[in-house]
Write a structure and sequence with these properties.
- This protein is α+β, with helices and mostly antiparallel strands.
- It has one domain: Gcn5-related N-acetyltransferase (GNAT) (Aminopeptidase), CATH 3.40.630.
- Helices cover 20% and strands 35% of the residues.
């Protein structure tokens, strides 16, 4: 089973963030992806009613290339469309283009009501 939860467990957040990104997580809250009840990934967001920032999303190395990162990111964006007007990815990554994001300097941007979720397989 795959699930995700927000948490303020700094020990867990720092352990995952260090394993994936090589440093402690900024702030006190992050999101953790669980695969079969085992922590598998971490995300750092900042959210207000006006805008949300996806700062980092990462999956542990041994679990990469299995679709978990895509699931995690899509799930986070699905939540964000209901709570904020604009979503930013605070880095440039062509991955976000398929959802309708556009490059905005050194980050990606989309109005929440314009976000689309294409099938991963490319079919309609």
């Amino acid at each position: 089973m795959i699930s995700l939860n927000a948490t303020n467990d700094k020990t867990l957040l720092n352990a995952l963030h260090n394993a994936i990104f090589g440093c402690d997580i900024e702030g006190d809250v992050g999101y953790v992806l669980y695969v079969d009840d085992i922590p598998a990934g971490v995300a750092k967001l900042s959210v207000t009613e006006e805008e949300a920032h996806i700062k980092r999303v990462g999956i542990l190395g041994k679990l990469r290339n299995k679709g978990y990162g895509d699931f995690f990111t899509r799930s986070l964006m699905n939540v964000l469309i209901d709570v904020t007007d604009v979503i930013y990815a605070d880095y440039v990554d062509d991955y976000y283009l398929k959802f309708g994001f556009e490059r905005d300097g050194d980050r990606m941007r989309i109005d929440s009501d314009k976000l689309t979720f294409p099938h991963k397989c490319g079919c309609k």
